[in-house]
Amino acid sequence: MSFEASNAEIAYCPRIDLAVVIPTYNERGNIPELVARIEEALTGLDWELIFVDDDSPDETAEVIREYACRDCRIRLIHRIGRRGLSSACIEGILATTSNYVAIMDADMQHDETILPRMLETLRQDSLDLVIGTRNAEGGSMGQFGQARVMLSRMGQKISNTVCQCRISDPMSGFFLFNRSFFNEVVRQLHGGGFKILVDMLASSERPVRFAEVGYTFRSRKHGTSKLDVNTGVEYLFLIIDKLTGFLIPIRFAAFSLVGAAGAATHLALVALLMFHFQWHFMSAQVAATFVAMTENFFLNNLITWRDRSLRGLRMVTGLFSFWVACSFGAWANVVVARSLVQSGARWYMAGIAGIILGSVWNYSIANLFTWQMPKRARPAPPLEIPAYDSELVP
Question: 191, 296, 358, 392: least surrounded by Cβ within 10 Å?
């Protein structure tokens, strides 16, 4: 059979006007109403709905899969062993062929009824993206308390330091964009955390053409908010990453910040033990060292290596290996600093060199041993597909 004949028999795939990508984690209760709302809002458009689920314990993926079996416009990407809103959005975007893609949350706090207006605005004005905003004309934070509003405003000010444009709601998780713009920035994306819009804006090498459409932020009906300490930490790492231009590995920057906190604890404890409890300096130094290393371990477990966080017995063995790693790092710090001083270097330069060497050592060993990457399961052997008999093929 010729290529031309085969190609002619391929079924025509209709153009998709809009793909809506929705990352999910424990959103089982919201899926039925969310699907119904989007179907109603996008009446008259050729659309597809792509859910990207991070293996939700409440079996959100199973609910979505049932809808996908009944409606080919609904698709599921079920991720196992990966976690994160931004990376989920990126995978969902790459999975669609549509030239126009929208991102929104699964908690129904975003107003799906403005999607057609956002798409029309993007097309008519040849824009890069259109943002659903809570902070401009027609927008509102709804019934959220003053503390949440203040937190959003603070995030807005921080975000505008790295974005390539001034927008009213850079913290928005509800926006629609042109695929050509995404293709421009995708290889510069940080890909971590929860603020994919800030990541895209900060990754652009040119002024971004954008518009904003106001909407009222609704209250969550089912499930629980994902806003916690780690969300703030992820956001901070994104900002640092964009400000430093990838010069400093973000995990090493987090490790250094945790180390600075440990150094402050160390000095404060030495002073307390010496001047209040009358301990000898060496005794206070040893006690403070172990307290600071222990504090650093738990903070690093919570923040720096949160994606490989240790639990149960592994936390005990991890703490021991971290003590050993930091002990060698401290020894290397002292040896290098002393050698530099003896060779004529100024004491503060020697001290800084020792700290840098010790930090790099501690980070490297902790990364390799304490929080080593989990071993991948051995891949299954390839399926043996029997050769077909060409005489049986019509």
Answer: 392
CA distances 114 to 122, 139, 212, 214, 218, Å, are 12, 12, 11, 9, 13
Please, which residues bridge with residue 78 across strands? Answer: 53
- Report CA Rg, the chain: 26
Location of structure tokens 């931004």:
86
Whole-model pTM?
0.69
Cα 249 from Cα 319, distance rounded (Å): 23
Residues 71-77: contacts with CB under 8 Å, at least 24 apart: 73/47, 73/48, 73/49, 74/35, 74/48, 74/49, 75/48, 75/49, 75/50, 75/51, 76/50, 76/51, 77/50, 77/51, 77/52, 77/53
N residues, the chain: 394
Residue whose token pair is 């809103």: 85
In the chain the beta strands, taken as DSSP E runs, fall at: 18-24, 47-53, 74-78, 100-103, 129-133, 175-178, 210-214
Tens digit of pLDDT per residue, the chain (394 long)? Answer: 444 444 545 555 668 999 999 999 999 999 999 999 999 999 999 999 999 999 999 999 999 999 999 999 999 999 998 888 889 999 999 999 999 999 999 999 999 999 999 999 999 999 999 999 988 777 777 665 565 556 566 666 666 666 767 788 887 889 999 999 999 999 988 877 677 888 898 888 899 999 999 999 888 777 666 555 566 666 667 666 766 665 667 778 788 888 888 888 878 888 898 888 998 877 887 788 888 889 999 999 988 887 788 988 999 999 998 988 888 877 776 677 678 778 887 766 766 676 677 778 888 888 888 888 655 444 444 444 344 343 333 3
CA dihedral 333→353→320→192, nearest 10 degrees, is 180
Burial class (CB in 10 A: 0-12, 13-18, 19+), 193: buried
User: Tokens representing 78?
Assistant: 């079920």
Other beta carbons within 10 Å of 336: 18
CATH number at 14-244: 3.90.550.10
Q: How many CB atoms lie within 10 A of CB 27?
A: 26
Structure tokens at 335: 């040896």
